[in-house]
Fold this protein.
Amino acid sequence: FQVKSENKKTIWSTEEVPEGSEFDDTWDPREKPEYEILFKQHVGTEDVFFGMTGKDPSTACCEDIVIKIKLPETKYSDITLDIQDKVLDLRTPKKKLLLHLPYPVNSKEAKARFLSEEEILEVTLRVSRKFDFINFS
């Protein structure tokens, strides 16, 4: 078994490297914050009472991913957030979170808000899906 490559010095091809691995820093001593991933879908009376659109409670029918990250003793100005299509990278002076997302998202439509009383950063991401028999809007 021999792998042909354009450059003889390459150890692996770009297809073998998982997306978002350039953000991973195993030597960073900052601790990982607690977080929660929630899925959100938009439903109307035609969904709730009549079941006309075929939506169900599964994540396959959800339009948004909401990630709630607990950041105690953190100010809004200390938060650095980078969102890619499949990766969320959050850094503060004391905490670091590299999260590979369960679905690809539209990073340009991401919204974040910091709830200072609860010390929680709430990030809402729009899921990028191909149109199918469930997701047709």
In short: The chain has one domain: 35-136.
